[in-house]
Amino acid sequence: MNSPVFWERQTSPEAGEVVKRTDAVIIPVGAVEQHGPHLPLAVDTLICQAVAEAVSAQTGVPVLPPVTYGVSGSHGDFPGTVALRPETMIAVMEDLIDSLHASGVRQFILLNGHIWNNGALDVSAEKLRVRHKDSRVRALGYVTMYPGPEVNGRVQFGRGLMHANFFETSVMLHLHPDLVRMERATSHVDVDSFWDYRMDQVSDTGVWGREVQEANAEHGQEEFDRCVQTTAKAVASAVAEPWPDPTHRPTV
Known about the structure:
By secondary structure, this protein is mostly helical. 38% of the residues lie in helices and 7% in strands. Strands 1-2-3 form a 3-stranded parallel β-sheet. Strand 2 (107-112), helix 4 (118-131) and strand 3 (136-141) form a beta-alpha-beta unit.
C-alpha cells in the first residue's frame, strides 16, 4: 500500500511538483469536544484524519494537517470542549483555500468529522465557488459516500446527535484503543424530536446512543475500512471528473 502524501512534509519546490501531478487536496476538519466519560476530546479529529490519510494513500491526493477545532458550542457545559463560532470556521476555511489557490490548487475536498461543522463548511464552499471560478469545492463527511442507514451506530433518532456511540467507540477501539476507557462507557436511549438541542439538554453524560458497552475493535475496523474505500473511490473519480460544458443541450 502507498503512503499518504502529507502536504506539510513537502519542501516548497516539492509542493509545486505535487500540484503539477494533482491540483487537488484533502482538508480534514474535526473538533475538540466532549465525548462522554470514555472517549478522548479529539475523537472527531482523530477518526477524520485517519480516513483522510488512508484516502490520500490510495488516491495520491495530498492531505493537509487537520483543522483541529470545530463548531462545537452546542455541547454546552461539559468540560473540555474547545469551540469555534461558525463565522470563525468560515473565515479559517476561506484563508486556507485562498492560500492553497495561490499555490495552484484548484480542487478542494473538505472532509468533515463533526456534523455540526456542516453548516459552516457548506457556506465556505458556496463563498469559495463564487470567489474562485476556476476551482471546485465540496464538503462531505467521511461516512457520506455510503447510505446513512447503513452506519451501525445503534442510534435510530436524533439526526446529528449521534455521539460517543457504538460506531465512534468501535472505530476508536480500532484506531486508538489506548485512548478508550471502556470501563467508563455508558449508553443513552435515543428519542425522537423535531428540534435539535444542546447536548447537555438531552444527555447527562454527553453520550447519545444505545449499547455502547458492546463496541468492539472488529466492528470498528469494518466501519473504518468501508469509510476509506467508499471515500477513496469517490475522491479518485471526483478529481478526474471533466468540467461541465455550459453549451450542452438535450439531443431531443
